[in-house]
Specification:
The structure is a single chain. The protein is an all-beta fold and 67 residues long. It is built from no helices and 5 strands. Strands 4-3-2-1-5 form a 5-stranded antiparallel sheet, with no helix packed on it. It is globular. The chain starts with 7 loop residues before the first strand and ends in a 9-residue tail after the last strand.
Length: 67
């Protein structure tokens, strides 16, 4: 899994009663965009994250050049 600052990460609940957590990758600390990632979650908390099989990465899309 490779990320960049600005990518969104979703951690799916591993159990029925667990909600998904969503956040933004603030910084990558591994080589070439690899983990661990510093993530700021939507509730304002931050955590150093090594993504597991319950994680999904949504890459940030760069803005197209204006004409």
């Amino acid at each position: 899994m490779r990320a960049a600052a600005g990518s969104r990460i979703v951690i799916h609940g591993a159990h029925v009663d667990r909600a998904e957590r969503r956040g933004e990758v603030v910084e990558t600390r591994g080589e070439d965009g690899g983990p661990p990632y510093l993530v700021r979650f939507d509730d304002g908390s931050e955590s150093l994250l090594f993504p597991g099989p319950d994680c999904e990465l949504e890459h940030a899309h760069p803005e197209p050049d204006a004409p």
